[in-house]
Amino acid sequence: MATTTRIQPRSLVRASGGPRYAVALAVDALGTGLLRPFLLLYGVTVLRLSGPTSGIAMTVGVVVGLVCMPAVGRWLDRGARSTVVAASMLVRVLGVVVLLATPAGHVWLFATAALFLGIGNQAWPAAHAALVATIAHGRERDAALAGGRALRNAGLGVGALLATACMAGGTTALQALAAVTGLAYLTAAALAWSVHVYAHPAVAAARDRADGPAPRMCALLAANVVYVFCLNVPEIALPLVLVTQMHASSVWSGAIFVTNTVLVVTLQVPVTVLMSRFSRRSVLALAGVVLAASYLGFLVATSLGHGWSAPAVATVSVVCTIGEIIYAGSATALVTALAPAHVLGRTLARFQLSTGFGLAVSPAVITALAPHGPAALWGSLAATTLLSASAVATEKDQGRRRRGCRREARAGA
């Protein structure tokens, strides 16, 4: 059992990469929030593509973007840190440039823009986690990762609100939002690169020689595919159920999304620090139990009479968000604790592959299950998440009990 960590704001910023890097994260998130929720609308409104065509192009971009992860992992393991973070932002600048240059009706150029945006979005989490792991250690690193997520969610929320306010401008406004997004990515890349964080592979290899190769983490990676469904529950599952099945006002969906964002921003660091008294694997298993309980709560809430279901769903969504916060605060932290430093990049890349795959397939799975009723949707999610939590709890950490294992992994993972 680990000791609870107390993190001061100044030390948290320092452990997260410093003030300039924090500004880079905020600017990058702001730019992403400006465009990401309206990329599909850009394809339909500005480029005059059909909704299904735009959606397929975006999905292909996200999935193909995952192919870059092995290369990103190897690059990180050669010592690059802030350079990879900056590169992930510059790739998205290229995506915005292609998007702005795409003539109406050209689906392949739109798909290319989505591909570049997808590569940047997939590469960034692993690069950011590797950078933080190089600067901070132990439970301070966990809090720094949580702080980065809270800051990113705040930037995404502000960006989405600004974009929503600009939507009255129509096509011109969408093009302007894309241009501002590109400038934000470029600024963030310059700031991130200026931090100049680099790891020394030879030192890491010597220090971790007894730990051997990257941990397999088969159960953890498979479970993570299911866990990440919770990230699309407020954005996809609940609006789909509330609006199309329960015929509730779209205000409920908006309120749930805003509540989710506010809770993540305000509670991500405190909850992560609070949970630091327990092992990371136990906390991750607990996250699965909380998420499964919230899914069962949604099943009960949707069965209530008219006038009660929507408020009940909104209430249960708070429990789901708490589960999401616990999951986000422990999953990447567990991976970085288990991975020997000299293969940290490849380990994080594998973890991001499972995350990206889960995010890519979850909309299709959710929309396929929803028409079959609440039991099919929420019951299936609850059962698979509980199974995943059990797999996480029972998986053995390879190499942790070998002679020479890192003390941190033995005590805190």
From TrEMBL:
<feature type="transmembrane region" description="Helical">
    <location>
        <begin position="375"/>
        <end position="393"/>
    </location>
</feature>
<dbReference type="InterPro" id="IPR050171">
    <property type="entry name" value="MFS_Transporters"/>
</dbReference>
<feature type="transmembrane region" description="Helical">
    <location>
        <begin position="154"/>
        <end position="177"/>
    </location>
</feature>
<dbReference type="InterPro" id="IPR036259">
    <property type="entry name" value="MFS_trans_sf"/>
</dbReference>
<feature type="transmembrane region" description="Helical">
    <location>
        <begin position="183"/>
        <end position="206"/>
    </location>
</feature>
<dbReference type="InterPro" id="IPR011701">
    <property type="entry name" value="MFS"/>
</dbReference>
<feature type="transmembrane region" description="Helical">
    <location>
        <begin position="283"/>
        <end position="304"/>
    </location>
</feature>
<keyword id="KW-0812">Transmembrane</keyword>
<dbReference type="Pfam" id="PF07690">
    <property type="entry name" value="MFS_1"/>
</dbReference>
<protein>
    <submittedName>
        <fullName>MFS transporter</fullName>
    </submittedName>
</protein>
<feature type="transmembrane region" description="Helical">
    <location>
        <begin position="56"/>
        <end position="76"/>
    </location>
</feature>
<keyword id="KW-1133">Transmembrane helix</keyword>
<feature type="transmembrane region" description="Helical">
    <location>
        <begin position="107"/>
        <end position="133"/>
    </location>
</feature>
<keyword id="KW-0813">Transport</keyword>
<feature type="transmembrane region" description="Helical">
    <location>
        <begin position="316"/>
        <end position="339"/>
    </location>
</feature>
<keyword id="KW-1003">Cell membrane</keyword>
<keyword id="KW-0472">Membrane</keyword>
<feature type="transmembrane region" description="Helical">
    <location>
        <begin position="250"/>
        <end position="271"/>
    </location>
</feature>
<feature type="transmembrane region" description="Helical">
    <location>
        <begin position="83"/>
        <end position="101"/>
    </location>
</feature>
<feature type="transmembrane region" description="Helical">
    <location>
        <begin position="21"/>
        <end position="44"/>
    </location>
</feature>
<feature type="transmembrane region" description="Helical">
    <location>
        <begin position="351"/>
        <end position="369"/>
    </location>
</feature>
<feature type="transmembrane region" description="Helical">
    <location>
        <begin position="218"/>
        <end position="238"/>
    </location>
</feature>
